[in-house]
């Protein structure tokens, strides 16, 4: 009789382990399936724009400061921990400004707003800059890359990207933007 009870206990234990494993597998493939964090640039505003043309010295003086509101949404049921990163301001393929994004964590199904200030302090050295100022339109691009991890039973590496093409109209001090978003697991 004790052999039968031992055999029955082993079968019950095996069935419990099998059902538990199946339940964990189903939860891992459905509810806890990793999803891409969504990085969006909600707004970009020119907060400071000063330019002048010195005809006597054939020089252009420019100071541009852009404020970008970047939103990172974590659609997962797990926390998203991201590393130190940066947002870059690009002019005709050349980096002209940068803003640091400190490391942090976004809770499950929550969003984080990052307010970044990009200062274009290296624009004057670009060769096409003067012709763009004279034409009245300054083409820029912002790039944000946010690498991080989701932890289920193991760490899952995730990288979220946002890129915006901007056109600053100098005379009206207005801005046109078109943004693209991407994420990799």
Automatic annotation (TrEMBL):
Q: Which Pfam families match?
A: LEA_2 (PF03168)
Q: Which domain of life is it from?
A: Eukaryota
Residues covered by the Late embryogenesis abundant protein LEA-2 subgroup domain: 70-152
Q: InterPro entries from the xrefs?
A: Lea14-like_2, LEA_2
Family annotation (PANTHER family):
LATE EMBRYOGENESIS ABUNDANT (LEA) HYDROXYPROLINE-RICH GLYCOPROTEIN FAMILY
Name assigned to this protein: Late embryogenesis abundant protein LEA-2 subgroup domain-containing protein
Q: Which species expresses this protein natively? A: Sesamum radiatum
Organism lineage reads as: Eukaryota, Viridiplantae, Streptophyta, Embryophyta, Tracheophyta
